Amino acid sequence: MDHVARLLKESWTLVEEDRDRLSGHFYARLFLLDPALRPLFPVEMTGQGDRILDAIVTATQVVDDPESFDEYLRSLGRDHRKYHVDAAHYETMGVALLDALRSTAGDGWNLEYDQAWRDAYGAISAKMLAGAAADDNPPFWHAEVLTHERHGQDTAVLTVRALQHQLRWRAGQYVSVEVPRHLPRVWRTYSVANAPNDDNVLEFHVRTPPGAGWVSGALVRRTRPGDLLRVAAPMGSMVLDRDSERDVLCVAGGVGLAPIKALVEELAGWNRARWVHIFYGARHAADLYGLAGLRELVEAHPWLSVTPACSEEPDFDGERGDISDVITRYGPWTTHDCYVSGSARMVRSTLRALAEDEVPPPNIRYDTFGDL
């Protein structure tokens, strides 16, 4: 293992069990160094720590395989334009990060660890700044809500139109969304549920369990047609390989249907030779909110099939069980391009099933929607 990579992973073990303290110290130090940064963040900081920890985990990986992270970091820099950060802010955040790491790690920290993190953060921030500088789009798009349809108590499907400039995304990508009327400066990512179009219209599928989910709760329960949202630059690599001739397996759980639906819509524009199999799972039949729309696509495209499944409804007229078990019954999938989208638990179990089926890892792309 590369010496710097080893130092990063080794030093991370000193702080990973104390993430709350790490993020708390980071933000306290950041706002002390530059009080002008405080208005860029939400009034309520709960949950912000996850973002800095994600950046730390990225730092521990980027030196292992920098090429695979190059475009990710550049797109992350483009995305961070929505926060109005500049080069000076990145420098301040670097100082605060190192100070938080030293304080949290305590006596186990040493100069080698310090230099390894300094170098890693420098490489990350340089790529992010380069990505931001190369982007000629606005930091975010204002978007008007066109339609809002509820499905049960905790799920909504909504469409929005970006109001300035063409917003260009690829099917399977996601964007950050802010609800400025209710939760200013709080952003959350959502997959775009439709293929790119010239009308600048994006569709989102949003689920929020009762009593949880700030942005999702606002989008499901408090958003109405005519409201204005903000949408940031597209990110993500769960996109179609147009050069591939392999058939396609799509596995969707709950609102993980969103990017799968977008991928199928894009395929509908040009596919003639590749069979596409969608496995769509949920706990209960009522949670399969997108099934009727999928069946309409099946009627229009002979190369498409849809298999629904429920894990907690014994009388369901279809496949029963976890979706990862269902796809195993229909395999093998070794010669397919595989796309997986859903909760973290569902994605993990599906990836294990595909690995046991000996699907080559380069043929698998996935997206997760938290732990629900």
UniProtKB/TrEMBL annotation:
Globin domain location: 1-133
Family named by the database record: In the C-terminal section; belongs to the flavoprotein pyridine nucleotide cytochrome reductase family. Belongs to the globin family.
Keyword Lyase among UniProt keywords: no
EC number: 1.14.12.17
Cofactors named for this entry: heme b; FAD
InterPro entries named among the record's database cross-references: Cbr1-like_FAD-bd_dom, FAD-bd_FR_type, FNR_nucleotide-bd, Globin, Globin-like_sf, Globin/Proto, MRET, OxRdtase_FAD/NAD-bd
Classification via CDD domains: Mb-like_oxidoreductase, O2ase_reductase_like
Keyword Iron-sulfur assigned: yes
Single GO molecular function: 2 iron, 2 sulfur cluster binding
Protein's UniProt name: nitric oxide dioxygenase
Assigned keywords, A-Z: 2Fe-2S, Heme, Iron, Iron-sulfur, Metal-binding, NAD, NADP, Oxygen transport, Transport
Residue intervals of the FAD-binding FR-type domain: 138-241
Catalytic reaction annotation: 2 nitric oxide + NADH + 2 O2 = 2 nitrate + NAD(+) + H(+); 2 nitric oxide + NADPH + 2 O2 = 2 nitrate + NADP(+) + H(+)
Pfam families for the chain: FAD_binding_6, Globin, NAD_binding_1
Superkingdom per UniProt: Bacteria
